[in-house]
Structure formats: structure tokens, C-alpha cells
Amino acid sequence: MMEQWEKISYIVQLIAACVLFMVHCRKRTKFVPRVLGCSGAFVLLSYWANSMVQQHGFSVWTVMYWAVFLVACVFFMYLCLDMELLQAAYCAVCACAMQHVAFDVNEIYLGLGGISRLVQVLLYIIVYFLFYRLFAKKIHERGEIRVSLESMFPMVTIIIIVWILSVLENSGLNGFQAEAGSRIFYRVIDGLCCYYVLWVQANQKEKLILKQELDGINTAWMLQKEQYVIKQEIIDNINRKCHDLKHQLQALRQMTNEEEKEAYFNEMEHDIMIYDTAVNTGNKALDVILMDKGLFCKNHDIQWTCMADGSCLSFMRIEDIYAIFGNALDNAITAVMAIRERDKRVVGLKMIMQNNILVIQVQNYYETTLHFEQGLPVTTKGNRKEHGYGMKSIRYIAEKYGGTITVNGQNQVFTLQILIPLEKG
What we know:
Elements: H1 2-22, H2 31-56, H3 60-80, H4 85-111, H5 117-139, H6 149-169, H7 180-254, H8 258-274, H9 284-299, E1 303-308, H10 318-337, E2 346-354, E3 357-365, E4 372-373, E5 376-377, H11 389-400, E6 404-410, E7 413-421
Parallel strand pairs: 1-2
Antiparallel strand pairs: 2-3, 3-7, 4-5, 6-7
Helix pairs in contact: 1-2, 1-3, 1-4, 1-5, 2-3, 3-4, 4-5, 4-6, 4-7, 5-7, 6-7, 7-8, 7-9, 9-10, 10-11
């Protein structure tokens, strides 16, 4: 029985490490069946591969054995998680590093004369638990994993070097055999290298979070400045009209042409109505967006209706507010700009709270034919590679806060609805 277990023990440890790094990631549909299916396939592959290695001793089969399972971990992550291949590779390397540290701790225990199987199992559990709390949980905390080839290169290099040395140390080849004390020392250094890799990654993640918070502060300052400029533009416009009106009142009283008088009154009414775009919802970021889009609608003959309480958006990052409302309103405005019929050039925004759920709804008329893929409308712009990311961005941000989005187009009215549950106070 123990001989059979030895053939699959490594892959079982690796699967457990991968699963711990999956806990806080965005998962693909049918996540559990995917994990079980891949795990079963890996166990069978491991059993067969170990049988081949035992038959050939240390050879190219041994190197291929380890390399195959490192690559397999990458595709395991990619098949089960909703992320890019580079992000999957990042998670897989971190999981392999964690498994290797647990393996080193177990080897140190055996080198010191330990023989208890129960203690070996407990050592794996303790190491996995500590590394989950220290690294796996933090790496995925507060947002998606951002990975670049530049940051991956040193990390992968260290892991590969440790992996090669570990394979050679276990090969029994002349020149790589060592006394018990030296083997323990090597395992300590080996484990520290893997720990260092994960520590650096977690530390980089914390620095990234601090940078994002600083960017948020700078963005808030820029929003205040932009809001001031927009409001000042509106006020200057009203003041200019009032100044002109003071000099034109006498001429207006003497004006006998009713059409000219009506046209002038309509122009004044339009300019005064622009002042209505200066909103105060209780959220500065939302105020800037609504003022900007409201002014655009006034100047392009688009009817604009808005009912929103921005105070309930305090939980949301400024850049996320900009992304959700900016993308949603831009899409709506683009759709109605193509409509010639005046009565249908309408954009409506409503944001309310219902049963501790934030409901955001944007509606507009449209004339084009809609096509949907994966529940989202396909962009009507010519270059689909450069466009069509607005709705995906809205869905991603909503899901980041535990919410969902629905879209539909009935009777030539497009409706985007976002539902985000809020924690009860």
C-alpha cells in the first residue's frame, strides 16, 4: 500500500497546494468538476510516470517527470480559474514553491531521525496552513493578480534552480551525495529560497495596494479640480448671459418680432437649464461624471434623466465608480447619438437601494441589431479587438464587489442593470 502511495504522494501534495492558491481567485464555471477531473487525471499520470522512472532509474525520464508536472500545474490553474495563462503560471509557480518548502521541512525531520508518519502529515498541514495565511491569501487579496514577464522572470529562475538542485540531490549520482548534516543544511537553504520567492511576491502585492491607494488619493484631488473647472464653466456661462441680459432687456421690451423674441427666450432657457447639470449626489467622483455627461447631452440634443444617491457608493474605489458609470453612460450616449428621432434620444440613469442591494440601471433607445456573446452585447464598432471592453469592465467590477449585471434589449430599449449586495451595518 505504501509503495502505491509513494507513486502519487507528490502530485497529491501539489494538487493541494494549487487548490489553496485557487481559493481567492475568480473561478470558471463548473469549478468543482474541473478540479476533480484534473486531479484524477494527474493522479493516474503520476502513477504511470513513477512506474517509468523506477524502471529507468535516474535518466531523462526523471527530469521529464518533474518538468511535466510543473507544466501540468500551469494548465490545471488555467483550466479551473478565470484568468490568463501568464497569471495561471504565476499561481502555479507559487503553489510549487509552497509544496517544496513543505517537502524540505519533511526532509529535515527525516534527516534528524524522525520516523512517524503522523508527524510528517502534521508538518505538511502546518506548513500549508502558515503559507496559505502568509502568502496564498495575500497575493489574491483586494483585486485581480497583475503579472508581467519582467516580474515573473526572477521568480521562475529561482524556482527552476532550486528544482534542478533538488532533482540532482535526490538522484544518488556521484558528486551530489552528501552526509546527513550537509543534506539538512541544504534543505534549510532550499526551503529558504522558496520562502524568499513567496515573500517577495506578497511584499510586491502590498506595495501595489499602497500605490493604488496613493493613486486613488491623487485621482480624488484631480476630480475635485475637474469638478471645480466644470462648475466654474457653468457659472461663467450663466454670468455672461446675465450680463448680456442686463444690456438687452430694454431692446427685448421693444422687440416686436415674436419669432425673434421666442428664439431669444429659448436660447436663454437652454443656457439656464445647463445649470441643472451641476449635481451634488454625495459622491464627488459620481458628480463629475454626471456633470460631464449631462453637459454633453444638453449640447447634443439628448434628453437626460438622472435619479442617483451617490452616498451609497462610499464602499467603491474612485476608479471603479468612473469605470462603471463612465462606460455605461458612454455606451448609452453613443447608441442614442445614432437616432434621428428626437423623442427617442433619451438616456436615463437610476440608482436606488432595495433590501440592502444597490441597484444601478441605465436605459436608452437604440436602432441597431444587437448580438450577444456570453450574456454581453457585442460591440457595433468596426474593430472588435480594440473595442467592446466597456461591458466586460463593468461586469468585472460588479463581480469584484460580489454583484451581477444583466442586459437586455426589448422594444428597442436597451437596459443595463447592476446589482451589488451591501453588507448590513
